[in-house]
């Protein structure tokens, strides 16, 4: 079994993602539990300790996912702010260019009159 590729995604032929979703993690639990049962015959089911470990692992993965999303959102917000400031600068420059264009048209018109 390849790591990082959900069994459902392999069965459907979907391309594997680089970062598997945290929310698809519970889908792995039955598979890993079966594997543990098959390798260790004395162990039966999930113990309270292993269940708590699974919960803490899920919590950790969820926090990492949230941190990555927050970083990406901040990155996008900074990009949007830069685009907005650039748009304002372009508007100011366009106004200056149109004003200078009118001045040059007036000068050429006046120079043609003389």
Textual characterization of the structure:
This protein has 114 residues and is an all-alpha fold. Helices cover 76% and strands 0% of the residues. It has helices spanning 7-12, 25-39, 48-113. The mean pLDDT is 79.
Write the layout of secondary structure elements.
Layout lengths: L6 H6 L12 H15 L8 H66 L1
GO cellular component, one term: dynein complex
Protein name: Dynein heavy chain 17, axonemal
InterPro entries: DHC
Largest sheet: none
Strand content: under 5%
Q: What is the residue-mean pLDDT, rounded to a whole number?
A: 79
Fraction of helical residues? over 70%
- The strand count comes to 0
Rg value: 31 Å
Span between termini: 88 Å
- Spans of at least 5 consecutive residues whose pLDDT stays below 50 are none
Q: Rough shape?
A: rod-shaped
Work out the helix count: 3
Order of helices and strands: HHH
Brief characterization of the structure:
The protein is mostly helical. It is 76% helix and 0% strand.
Give descriptors for this structure:
3 helices; 76% helix; Dynein heavy chain 17, axonemal; DHC; dynein intermediate chain binding; 114 residues; mainly alpha; dynein light intermediate chain binding
């Amino acid at each position: 079994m390849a790591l990082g590729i959900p069994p459902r995604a392999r069965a459907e032929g979907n391309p594997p993602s680089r970062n598997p979703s945290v929310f698809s993690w519970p889908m792995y639990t039955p598979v890993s539990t079966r594997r543990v049962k098959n390798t260790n015959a004395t162990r039966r089911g999930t113990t309270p300790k292993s269940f708590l470990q699974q919960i803490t692992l899920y919590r950790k993965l969820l926090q990492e996912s949230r941190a990555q999303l927050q970083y990406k959102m901040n990155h996008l917000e900074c990009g949007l702010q830069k685009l907005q400031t650039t748009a304002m600068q372009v508007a100011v420059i366009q106004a200056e260019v149109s004003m200078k264009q009118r001045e040059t048209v007036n000068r050429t018109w006046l120079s043609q009159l003389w």
